[in-house]
Amino acid sequence: MRRFATCFSLGLGLLVVALIAGCRAAPPPAPPAPEFRPTATVREVMGNMVDPSADVLWESVATIVSQEQGTSVGAEPERHQRIDLV
Question: Per DSSP, what are the bridge partners of residue 62?
Answer without folding.
Answer: 73
